[in-house]
Task: inverse folding
């Protein structure tokens, strides 16, 4: 925040300095803003988007972070730390993992007067089924916590919904809001807890808010059914004596202030329990850090998806100032003629641009706040199920300031370069409003001119870019070389500036009495480099040595010589900047390639290839290769690369490189740019077909011809507009297509494996025969076709060692699922890979069913998809282990804290859809029972008859078995699909903001075109064009540009999605499935884009049609 505020302050101070130093040019720039209010409104409308995107990104991140943080504070209250058994460091059977109360008493005595710790509270914790006998409702997995409520005062005490302190004795229970809602509990009612199948009656003493003290211990869960009983009561029914499962600790201070002492308290407690089998967990601190990380992830996601809109916004800013420069050309020419210098024009443009910039930043900030509220509303409406909480909008002043400053900075940078470009004009041509004369370069298409272009590009900033990347990537042996290059590189831009300034001019051109440029002194850290540049300019300004090609090449390689050559070169000789910076790009491409292969990064490889193609294009253009052919061929080849590379065609050359979300942005920028070049250099091919079709269009054919022809006379303007619209359309189309196909692959009905209902059984109340238990409870079992029992050892309860064919492998933890014979006989899961010797999936499943030493692994075990977000060190296997027809290898299943070691041989890998509900190593049920005797999780999966109402059947199971919770697989899939669709709509809405850019661009162009072509309009009217034909010409012209961008983005988005889903790992996962094109979404996206662009063109078109003929012909 401090950095962006400081940069913004420098920008505003520079603007104030310009206003103070040259008020005339400053006011000249500002007075242009209110001259055309409609155009000004459109400009601000387009420029504000960067600020809107930043505001929404930071605002959404703040909202998510603050909502989760508030929920954590509400749940934890004054509980800050947790002391538990160290399962990893001291593995023991579950019944031995307890803390003696004598130990707790010793800790209390030791820290009785400690200023950082207020208290200790031993607790017991069990997950039990709870039945409300009055309503018949039950909850299969309520968290029941027990502690001495009389000792809970330092923790804020257990309180009911009215805030009254509650103390418990005997069989009294306090239920939290979630449990009360699930079973309709009321004060005074009798509830039944099931423990080992035996009922224990308790009486509801109060209902309390959800918190740790009322049984809410799983912060990450979306629902928290739980309750609190007295410590003595639960100890008695669990047959425990003088022990606790855990101890909670409260820091000194309140709910929030105590968090600041967590590090100190953790250190003190660790010193005390060092050498014991216990560990300290900073519960609240860790949860708050996760909440902040969650918020930053949301911010990052929104910024990544907003990059397309930001890129389009940059293009719009540049386009606007190109058009403003064209409009002000005679005015600027006259200003130069009466003595104004180029820097005066730059200052004038900066004043005008910053007026738009500040206005757009303010409007964008306000609009961003409203959009943030809208986004949060959309998340709550469509994606709450997937997110797991209801967001409460929160925008911090820090985020608003950062968003405003970033919007100002990003716009200012583009405005500055556009202003410098606009200031370079021929005075005579500008006054007469003629095209800029083409300056003949005597060194054009020569190696000498090419070398001089590279030298100037290196001095003007290329050396800085190359040196920074080289220092970051190359070995330490190269550090001294590139440090020197960087130091001289920082001098270079000043040398270039001074050579074009009066101070650096040769004697015969220098005006006596002129001073040095003062603005570099604003950049205080760089003042020493500026002083060196002043010295070099002073020494070399009157020298004009004859320089050979060899010396120029030496100047490129040795920065000190290069600085002297640039300081002495002819100021008026043209420089092929494109060719020069193309070589800088090639040098960066080489560094990118090194980065790519050393870090297995596809992003840098693809970026390096794209930069290399850019170098080739500029080089061919410099050496006068036919532009249409060279740009068309190179753009086509680069597009082909982006289609071929994801398919793995180049893997035999480049190896297996990895990519991430950043490739989404890079591919869009490069592919849309290539497509734009193909269009603008070849669109004239459309003219003959238009003429042919025009014969059938009758009177409107002239309007159609001019509509296609005119955009091709302003290729840069047309190309930038097509690219803006294409970028946004590409991002929307590709995101929609990818999301729909991911949903089709990973959330398909294949994830059910042929089963319909899943039943989770409380671990304290397992059942051996689900069907018998259901029949005993009066549940209709007629719909049941097959039932499979499964025992599960979850990640964290297992240790797995790998014995691969190539030698000992890695170790980690992973879920292990033990299934019975009914599962192997009934499941319909397809396998991604089978071991050598197995000809079909059925053979693999049959082998596992008959041999307790065989196993099938899930798809995620080799792609590490969930490893980054797991609290455990998950096992990750090398994908090479499970190639086509792989050799079977051994996994050793180890129960922590025991000597049990069970080897199993892997003979297959499940297809990816199975990971949704079956993400575990699948073995026989008895194998899990024997390997992990302390793992008591049990579930059943049921296959039902066709036509069964799955949701109703699941509810009947829950009502019949209090210890069970049941869900329909179809409902679970539908919920995930709905959440996926909700996030799709959310991000489509966010990225759709970028359409504002394209629409504003078309509006600005249309308004400008009416002014530019006023005389042409008059001529067309004079030779017989009707008003309607003039209006149609403008509408068709905008239609051509808009449709070009829309079709380009849609085609590239769909085609690249197809390549991704039919090749590589995703192609393997989708094998046998069909690629889906979301036609309805594409029609809506393209229809909205085209319709909005037509609306923006309608008004300028009507204005053009009303131009008076005589007045227009006299217009100059």
Result:
């Amino acid at each position: 925040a401090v950095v962006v505020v400081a940069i913004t302050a420098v920008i505003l101070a520079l603007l104030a300095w310009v206003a103070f130093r040259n008020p005339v040019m400053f006011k000249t720039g500002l007075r242009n803003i209110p001259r055309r209010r409609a155009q000004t409104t459109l400009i601000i409308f387009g420029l504000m988007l960067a600020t809107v995107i930043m505001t929404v990104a930071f605002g959404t991140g703040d909202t998510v972070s603050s909502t989760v943080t508030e929920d954590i504070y509400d749940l934890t209250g004054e509980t800050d730390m947790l002391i538990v058994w160290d399962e990893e460091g001291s593995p023991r059977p579950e019944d031995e993992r307890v803390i003696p109360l004598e130990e707790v008493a010793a800790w209390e005595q030791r820290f009785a007067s400690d200023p950082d710790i207020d208290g200790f509270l031993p607790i017991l914790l069990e997950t039990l089924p709870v039945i409300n006998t009055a309503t018949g409702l039950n909850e299969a997995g309520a968290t029941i916590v027990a502690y001495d409520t009389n000792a809970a005062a330092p923790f804020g005490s257990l309180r009911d919904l009215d805030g009254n302190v509650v103390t418990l004795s005997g069989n009294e229970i306090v239920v939290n809001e979630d449990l009360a809602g699930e079973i309709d509990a009321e004060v005074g009612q009798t509830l039944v807890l099931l423990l080992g199948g035996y009922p224990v009656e308790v009486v509801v003493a109060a209902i309390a808010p959800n918190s740790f003290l009322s049984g809410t211990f799983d912060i990450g869960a979306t629902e928290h059914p739980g309750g609190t009983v007295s410590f003595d009561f639960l100890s008695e029914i669990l047959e425990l004596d003088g022990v606790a499962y855990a101890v909670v600790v409260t820091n000194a201070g309140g709910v929030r202030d105590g968090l600041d002492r967590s590090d100190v308290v953790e250190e003190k407690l660790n010193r005390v329990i060092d050498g014991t089998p216990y560990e300290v967990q900073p519960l609240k601190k860790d949860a708050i850090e996760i909440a902040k990380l969650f918020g930053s992830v949301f911010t990052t996601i929104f910024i990544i998806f907003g990059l397309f809109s930001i890129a389009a916004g940059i293009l719009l800013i540049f386009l606007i100032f190109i058009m403003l420069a064209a409009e002000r050309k005679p005015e600027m020419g006259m200003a130069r003629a009466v003595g104004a210098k180029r820097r005066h024009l730059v200052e004038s443009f900066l004043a005008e641009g910053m007026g738009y910039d500040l206005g757009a930043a303010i409007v964008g900030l306000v609009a961003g706040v409203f959009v943030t509220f809208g986004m949060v509303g959309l998340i709550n409406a469509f994606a709450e199920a997937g997110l797991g909480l209801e967001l409460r909008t929160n925008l911090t002043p820090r985020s608003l300031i950062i968003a405003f400053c970033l919007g100002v900075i990003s716009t200012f940078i583009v405005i500055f370069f556009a202003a410098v470009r606009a200031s370079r004009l021929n005075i005579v041509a500008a006054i007469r409003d003629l095209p800029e004369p083409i300056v003949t370069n005597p060194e054009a298409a020569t190696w000498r001119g090419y070398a001089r272009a590279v030298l100037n590009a290196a001095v003007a900033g290329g050396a800085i870019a190359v040196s920074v990347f080289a220092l970051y990537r190359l070995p330490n042996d190269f550090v001294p070389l590139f440090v020197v290059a960087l130091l001289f590189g920082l001098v270079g831009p000043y040398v270039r500036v001074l050579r074009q300034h009066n101070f650096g001019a040769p004697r015969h051109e220098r005006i006596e009495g002129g001073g040095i440029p003062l603005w570099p002194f604003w950049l205080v850290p760089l003042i020493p480099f500026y002083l060196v540049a002043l010295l070099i300019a002073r020494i070399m300004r009157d020298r004009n040595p004859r320089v050979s090609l060899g010396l120029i090449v030496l100047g490129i390689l040795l920065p000190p010589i290069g600085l002297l050559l640039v300081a002495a070169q002819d100021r008026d000789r043209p420089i092929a900047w494109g060719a020069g910076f193309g070589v800088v790009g090639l040098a960066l491409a080489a560094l990118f390639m090194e980065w790519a292969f050393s870090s297995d990064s596809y992003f840098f490889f693809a970026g390096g290839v794209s930069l290399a193609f850019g170098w080739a294009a500029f080089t061919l253009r410099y050496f006068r290769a036919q532009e249409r052919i060279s740009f068309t061929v190179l753009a086509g080849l680069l597009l082909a690369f982006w289609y071929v590379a994801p398919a793995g065609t180049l893997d035999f050359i480049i190896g297996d490189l990895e990519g991430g979300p950043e490739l989404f942005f890079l591919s869009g920028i490069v592919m849309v740019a290539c497509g734009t070049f193909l269009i603008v250099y070849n669109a004239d091919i459309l003219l003959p077909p238009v003429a042919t079709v025009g014969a059938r269009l009758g009177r409107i054919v002239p309007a159609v011809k001019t509509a296609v022809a005119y955009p091709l006379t302003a290729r840069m303007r047309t190309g930038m507009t097509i690219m803006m619209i294409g970028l946004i359309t590409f991002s929307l189309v590709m995101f929609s297509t990818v999301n729909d196909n991911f949903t089709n692959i990973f959330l398909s009905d294949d994830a059910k494996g042929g089963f319909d209902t899943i039943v989770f059984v409380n671990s304290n109340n397992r059942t051996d025969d689900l069907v018998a238990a259901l029949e005993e409870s009066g549940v209709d079992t007629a719909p049941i076709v097959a039932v499979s029992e499964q025992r599960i050892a979850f990640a964290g309860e297992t240790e797995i060692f790998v014995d691969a064919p190539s030698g000992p492998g890695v170790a980690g933890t992973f879920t292990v699922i033990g299934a019975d014979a009914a599962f192997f006989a009934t499941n319909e899961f397809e396998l991604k890979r089978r071991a050598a010797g197995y000809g079909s999936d059925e053979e693999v499943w049959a082998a596992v069913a008959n041999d307790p030493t065989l196993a099938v692994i899930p798809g995620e075990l080799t792609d590490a998809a969930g490893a980054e977000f797991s609290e455990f060190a998950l096992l990750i296997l090398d994908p090479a282990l499970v190639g086509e027809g792989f050799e079977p290898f051994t996994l050793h299943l180890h129960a922590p804290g025991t000597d049990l070691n069970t080897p199993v041989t892997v003979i297959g890998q499940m297809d990816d859809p199975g990971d949704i509900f079956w993400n575990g190593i699948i073995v026989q049920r008895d194998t899990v029972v024997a390997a992990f005797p302390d793992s008591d999780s049990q579930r059943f999966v049921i296959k039902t008859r066709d036509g069964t109402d799955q949701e109703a059947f699941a509810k009947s199971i829950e009502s019949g078995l209090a210890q069970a919770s049941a869900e329909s697989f179809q409902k679970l899939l539908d919920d995930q699909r709905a959440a996926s669709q909700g996030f799709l709509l959310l991000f489509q809405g966010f990225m759709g903001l970028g359409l504002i850019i394209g629409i504003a661009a078309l509006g600005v162009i249309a308004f400008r075109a009416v002014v530019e072509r006023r005389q042409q309009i008059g001529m067309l009217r004079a030779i017989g064009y009707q008003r309607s034909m003039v209006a149609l010409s403008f509408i068709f012209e905008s239609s051509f540009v808009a449709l070009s961008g829309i079709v380009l983005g849609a085609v590239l988005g769909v085609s690249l999605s197809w390549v991704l889903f039919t090749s590589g790992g995703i192609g393997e996962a989708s094998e046998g499935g069909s690629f889906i094109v979301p036609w309805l979404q594409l029609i809506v996206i393209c229809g909205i884009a085209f319709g909005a662009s037509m609306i923006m063109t309608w008004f300028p078109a009507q204005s053009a049609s009303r131009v008076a003929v005589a007045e227009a012909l006299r217009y100059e």
Summary: The radius of gyration is 36 Å.
